[in-house]
User: Fold this.
Amino acid sequence: MMSRVLAVARNTIREVLRERIVLVLAIFGAALVFASQVLSPLALGEGKKVVTDFGLAGSSLLATLLAVFLGSSLLHKELDRRTIYAVMAKPIRRAEFLMGKFLGLWTTTGFLLAGMTLMVLALLTVVHHETPWILLGSLLLTLMELGIVTAFVILFSSFTTPGLTAFFTLGVIVTGSFAEQILYFGGQGESSFVAGLTGAFYWALPHLSTFNVRGMVTHGVAVPPERIAFGVSYALLYMGAVLTIAGAIFERRDFR
Assistant:
């Protein structure tokens, strides 16, 4: 099984790399250096914090957007070119095919995220003569968040169009980032139905704020190991649940 999944993942990595996403690294690096030179003198001695916050937020945003907009068309291209018929003719289950697509996309965007984070680390080392290794804790949690986003991209692309896949995934990202606020405001009214509905949404949505530790890292606070362990465990379980649903839907999809 794993050999078939990894074969699809390798092919997906090659397909994504054809989009020349390496150019994103070069553009990000240039923007980071430019921002550090322009914003640091205006930050009243807080240049290190500005570069850290700008760099981590920018790398997370770019990696997420690439996962959404590149991933939303992965399955559609297979169907449009009819290459999926050749793949399905081989001894591979549809769920395995989806898992390979997920691993390939997550791996590619994950390496992109890691590359951008290392650029931030290198710039801080060169300019401020200090290597903030605590950035690696933020990188790991952001990577887990990226995995959840990628899983939703695969889920929505298993039954709808690229445009709707991107729209639905962005909707999940926005609502998942404010899950606690949705639960709070839902409980402020007198309607038990609204409170119950927002409670259901709260438990169903991914709690993406769990993975946002940029504020801690920007102020020089290391991410606690227990938060990292919880974030990784939660993300892996959530990804597994989403991909299981995606596989069940894709198994029943009619390609004709």
User: Anything to note?
Assistant: The chain has a mean pLDDT of 83. The two ends are 26 Å apart (CA to CA). The longest helix spans residues 94-128.
